[in-house]
Amino acid sequence: MPHARNSAPLKKTEKGFRSIYAFDEGNKEMNDLLGGKGANLAEMSILKLPVPPGFTITTNVCRYYLEHKKYPKGFEADLQKHMKKLEKLIGKKFGDRENPLLVSVRSGAPVSMPGMMDTILNLGLNDATLKALLAKTGNERFCYDSYRRFVNMFGNVVLDIPHEDFEEELDAIKHHRGATVDTELTTEDLQLAVKKFKEVVRRKTGHEFPEDPEKQLLLAIHAVFNSWNNDRAITYRRIHNFSDKIGTAVNVQAMVFGNMGNTSGTGVAFTRNPSNGEKRFYGEFMINAQGEDVVAGIRTPQTLDEMKDVMPDVFADLVEVREILEKHYRDMQDIEFTIQEGKLYMLQTRSGKRTGRAAVKIAVDMVNEKLITKKEALVRIDASSLNQLLHSDIDPKAPKHVIAKGLPASPGAACGKVVFSADDAFDWVTNRKEKVILVRKETSPEDIHGMHVAEGILTSTGGATSHAAVVCRGMGKCCVAGCADIMVDAKNKRFIVGHTVVYEGDTITLNGTTGEVMLGSMPMVKAGMSEDFETVLSWADQFRKLTVRTNADTPYDAEVGRKFGAEGIGLCRTEHMFFEEARIKVVREMILSKDLEGRQRALRKLLPMQRKDFIGIFKAMNGLPVTIRLLDPPLHEFLPQKDSQLEELARDLMMDIEELKRFKDSLHEVNPMLGHRGCRLGITYPEIYEMQVQAILEAGIQASRAGIEVLPEIEVPLVGHVEELRAVRQMITTMINHYAEDITFKYKIGTMIELPRACLTADELAPEADFFSFGTNDLTQTTFGLSRDDSGKFMNEYISRNIWERDPAAGIDEHGVGKLMKICIELGRSVKPKLEIGICGEQGGDPASVQFCHKIGLDYVSCSPYRVPIARVAAAQAAIMDMKK
Amino acid sequence: MPHARNSAPLKKTEKGFRSIYAFDEGNKEMNDLLGGKGANLAEMSILKLPVPPGFTITTNVCRYYLEHKKYPKGFEADLQKHMKKLEKLIGKKFGDRENPLLVSVRSGAPVSMPGMMDTILNLGLNDATLKALLAKTGNERFCYDSYRRFVNMFGNVVLDIPHEDFEEELDAIKHHRGATVDTELTTEDLQLAVKKFKEVVRRKTGHEFPEDPEKQLLLAIHAVFNSWNNDRAITYRRIHNFSDKIGTAVNVQAMVFGNMGNTSGTGVAFTRNPSNGEKRFYGEFMINAQGEDVVAGIRTPQTLDEMKDVMPDVFADLVEVREILEKHYRDMQDIEFTIQEGKLYMLQTRSGKRTGRAAVKIAVDMVNEKLITKKEALVRIDASSLNQLLHSDIDPKAPKHVIAKGLPASPGAACGKVVFSADDAFDWVTNRKEKVILVRKETSPEDIHGMHVAEGILTSTGGATSHAAVVCRGMGKCCVAGCADIMVDAKNKRFIVGHTVVYEGDTITLNGTTGEVMLGSMPMVKAGMSEDFETVLSWADQFRKLTVRTNADTPYDAEVGRKFGAEGIGLCRTEHMFFEEARIKVVREMILSKDLEGRQRALRKLLPMQRKDFIGIFKAMNGLPVTIRLLDPPLHEFLPQKDSQLEELARDLMMDIEELKRFKDSLHEVNPMLGHRGCRLGITYPEIYEMQVQAILEAGIQASRAGIEVLPEIEVPLVGHVEELRAVRQMITTMINHYAEDITFKYKIGTMIELPRACLTADELAPEADFFSFGTNDLTQTTFGLSRDDSGKFMNEYISRNIWERDPAAGIDEHGVGKLMKICIELGRSVKPKLEIGICGEQGGDPASVQFCHKIGLDYVSCSPYRVPIARVAAAQAAIMDMKK
């Protein structure tokens, strides 16, 4: 589970820190210093697994370098020392003309950033060492293959030459040869590729490719450090809320080669299935390939099942490694390996990313296997990934028009309009408020921002471990990958499948669980709750301190929420009841009445409708509290927008159309968010709130008589001044006194806390309130001075320039809004120590926000029904982390 | 100077508090307990001035009564004891059928509330005591006059019968008699009036007029206490920020009679002229009159100069009293007196309300007379009344169309649209944003809310001490009173003067200094600064700690501000420069550019214009700091609103009108206040801020070369997140580096603090800011979640229901916004102890807000040029009050 981690900033005067650790000097606890890759390479070394030797340059060096634009004193000497040690260990010499040592240079940050940082393999090659390698291996094809890969990677990563420039040259050679995949190329072809690639370098940089291995190494380290601040890395950190100050480590490791022929290869694997959690070794490998070949999806890889047949010994070794690692790490591992001439080498292990479904199954299985405790199991689940388990799936009974089938790369279903670039995806979602499916030949880290906002991803190439698949599983987003049936024509914004052409803006549906691609929008059904999930939730309930309620405006929502474990309703927005077809007319009649009498006449018609709703909700929540918010939005929101609708309304109400328009104009507001709404309405039109309170009380009385246990909590919105609350409370109390004899149920009167001033004067409000409920949607908007309806115009720029880590609406902003919440709680409870305080609104289901709510001592969070299970798990995680302290 | 005073709440268990003090048991320091009137009656008794004996029921009793709806234990016995004492002292008995004691019952709160509370005279009269009085005085006319007054007052104040019901009966009798004033009525007429008045009581209440004097007394005390919470009192307290919890005292005093014939009378006087401060006895009296007759303006009173001739002995006594009081109180006094058969009695003294002009003159004179110290003089001035001295006056050279002339009741000039009721005044000002002149026959306390918002008041009856005159002087508002030339026809919303009819909505101009009423809007000239005012300001500068700057957008404003003593510019709004005719077109061209290049082209045209403005401002503020805020409002504010203007613009820019409209629509915002503005513009369109910074720097360089000392402070608006400030600061620094060699002046880069989040994260912002400047206009709007443009829809209701004491925009809301400011200062200075912090915006000139700014440790306040002197005085007052602690 990723958490924002902030290493303590490096003291400028600190000179004595250690720059480098050999693999056998570290261990997995040294993650902050060695990065995830380095720490785990060290740990695997301890476990005596077959790890090629090497060393790790610490994150200290990176932070120093990024801050001072130079290496710390003594670093280069240290580096030389470790290279010498490595040479001695391997028995080869770096840059040697007879027995040259080649190394890989790979980044590895303390936080997992797959695909974000850059890797260089085969470093140390130049024309001279190539000759030595040729002489030593006698494998010409391998040598030129390694060399062309090195020039390509180094040119791209260090010298900043677009990968496409090299790709073009290789494609030309392939074309000339009539080859479709790289393995069909001859030695001569590869030799030519090296020549062409070096020409590219010369053309693009104006310099020769650097031949000096020492220089190559320094430049590569340099490039890795700088890549910490490339746009892809920044985007990834922003999305995952990682601090920019963490920095990366660099691993320098002796090369082993998967491209030495048909007894060599490279692969990736998960110790359990990362998609469904099944306890089954799961992975892919590719013969005669190197490095990123599998992940990049350049050829279609083979499965581990196939390896059993092709390389039984290697497979047996791998299975043994799998067992050692799972037992040792007590978690599902994601590993990378290389086979050099029949011998297995481990290049990486880390906790594997998994879908929510897999997370739940693995958690339950591992607890059953007594590998981990319930607490560990809970803390390890990425609560937001549980979303997938709760998302709608395609109705299996619905007729479907499947146009293609790809790999089921990330489960769930998604439906949206087709777009063909990440930028378009971002634009359509952010500015046009459309739901989109991003369709690409393959995705790359540059596409992250578009993938983040898309409903689902469809790619035409790449396997189950391709970029698209891995990233989507991490995001809990539906993905169909490697769908070779379709031809993506991004330039003309269309894809072709058989006789069908799908254009930008057409709607398709993806089924990430089956790999099906369907035309049009498919009916969805609710996700079922698996037994494992129920188990995890029951554990969560054992540990969590926070109550979890749901936001529900209808009896149906209330039932769904309760089914998901909601322990009450934290927000019932009465205005949503006003929008129903039959009612909106009466509401409009009320608004357009010229006088109190007219309004009261219309309100009398609304009363039985509202009463009926409340009875339904009380029934659904029998025995649980129900917070009902009195009318909140400004009245003009209920009037129609279009002229034709206005005309119809005028006819209905037998009103002059011009008069109606004038009236509508008179209700217009410059800033409706800050206008005549919330309790301001209740104070100026008390008859509206009176009707609502009457409906609540009468519904309570009727439901009570029918044996329902009713616990209404009447909530006053948009209070900024104690006198507002006092005035509305007075009105409510008067109504209650009127019904006193018939009221047998308990009730509360409280207020929404959604304005900075409410937080700042909470000690004045508390004596008048039986409860507080944070409305962080509006509180965020007023604290930031930011209208959610208008922020789209600059949000893109703000996120991409890293001014905001994410849309402030997405989760509680702890520095600003969170501080106000703390002030509010402190002031409120200073005068009323047992004041019930909760939170409602979108952020109540955001795991990080739920954890913050636990930390600051809220009594409950309330969120949409489908987020209730997530909140339960997040609340448990917060409680468990609290115990650890 | 009125201050909000909050007596400590009465402890519910506190039973032993003292209910009543005789006048000779109290003194002027006992204001909180005895009220102003009671304390000063006691003090005058100590001074051996001729005060009719009596006693004061304390505010304790009032608060107890209001809270418990009954009198404290033992109160009635205490009352009887003091009545007995009074009877003994006077030698008369209350309710006696031979020698009856009559008393007045008058309220007197610890805070001055003129005309707000009610008075009953001649209490103790009934048919039996009347006979005794007749027998004793032999003055039938006096007896019936007293009786009809008593029935009227008691009926109105205690029994809640409208005054008009009695007035009608009296008018009928007058009509029958052919009398125009009350002195023309005969004994029989007055006898009839008593009869008719008692019939009114019977008709209206269903009961006989209460004959029992004991009951009369208790009911009267009761009524005074209840009147504390009448609407007029509440309104007055709201306007003056007095707590509702203070309560009033009640004075019961033996009657003396000004209506015993032509050697009797009643009057009011000021020991110095309250209008201009001249050291000259100033007042009016009325022969054969009682109580409120003078103030109510029922007849035209005589001046004190006339008294010298009519009643020389009384006048001599009065002059002696005046000298004793001024020496004793060391302040100008407002006194009330009654002459009973040639003998002077003092009924009240208090510090007199005065105009700003008078306050200044009296302060300077009294310091010169060595009566008070400079500090005392300063603290005593109501800083907001100084407004008058600075307000525009009518240009004496302008041709004027004088239609009428009344009494110059409160100085200054005012111009506005005529309205005829206080409600209309409130409505027009609050909702229609009009400036109005309230025209009334006479005003009454019910009109306070309308008077408060009107530009000026015109009345057709009443003198220089009438309600309208007194209240207007207190408010520093222009008033022409007793303008008998005009006939006010409020029913038809018009007034008639000769052949001219002025209707509601017509514009008139008042000159409160001359009493002239003019048709239309007159040209105004700036008020001059008197020598006395300069003296007061120079004292203020000796004591104040706060620097006072001015808000100025033009070199002219800057000069005016500097003339008034501004020590820099606290806010220069660059956008105001954009609205000038010649520039707005270029601004629009910039906004409508399709690309960066187009915007830059337009910005290049704007650059020299902005540069020129800044040079002018730097010249005007030579040697003083100038805070320049970068562009703040959303771009759509610069586009024309009307279709015709849009069409013209399209032609000018050779743009398709439909395209222009679409563009305009695309800029539309739901909540522009919370939208794409401030630094959000600077971050998305950096070229705009770059141009502005370039203009500032080039202007600084040019002005410096011309020998001007330039001190620019570049201000980034609407910062909510440190990264915003960091990004803009980075841009500014880059510009500065570009000009580094030519910049010889000091500069600062800072931020406006106008969002709650900026306050809450001030410790993050401070390292990036050389200064903070509170923009409390926007900070108030976001803290309250209140749009100033939309609040009119409910403001009326909120103020009248006492939910808000005043429009939150009018001054710093200490509980909410003020708390945020304190948090900001504390956090900001925790990381940068010497951080310069100021405030700009309207509230920087509100005296209470200035005092708050002093208290929380700001470095400066900045306000509009005409409020600079007020701020200087308010700042001095804050500093002096600080010393006292």
Instruction: Give the strand line-up of the largest sheet of chain A.
Output: 14-24-23-16-17-18-19-15
Distance between the termini of chain A: 18 Å
Strand pairing plus helix content of chain A: what structural class?
Answer: alpha/beta
Q: What radius of gyration of chain A results from the CA coordinates?
A: 31 Å
Biggest chain-to-chain interface with counts = A-B, 50 and 50 residues
Assembly form of the protein? homodimer
The backbone outline of chain A, from C-alpha atoms, is elongated
Q: Regions of chain A with pLDDT < 50 over 5+ consecutive residues? A: 1-14
Number of helices of chain A: 35
Number of strands of chain A: 33
Describe the main β-sheet of chain A briefly.
8 strands, mixed
Share in helix of chain A: 40-55%
Name the average pLDDT of chain A: 90
Content of β-strand of chain A: 15-25%
Task: Describe the fold and architecture.
The structure is a homodimer. With about 900 residues, the first copy, chain A, is α/β, with parallel strands linked by helices. Chain A is built from 35 helices and 33 strands. In chain A, the strands form 7 sheets. In chain A, strands 14-24-23-16-17-18-19-15 form an 8-stranded mixed sheet. The first copy, chain A, has an 8-stranded parallel barrel with strand order 26-27-28-29-30-31-32-33, surrounded by 6 helices. Chain A has a 5-stranded antiparallel sheet with strand order 1-2-7-5-6. In chain A, helix 5 (about 140-155) runs parallel beside helix 7 (about 185-205), helix 14 (about 375-380) crosses helix 19 (about 530-545) and helix 27 packs across helix 28 (about 720-740). The longest helix of chain A has 25 residues, at about 595-620. The first copy, chain A, is elongated, with a radius of gyration of 31 Å. The two termini of chain A are about 20 Å apart. The interface between A and B is large, with 50 and 50 residues.
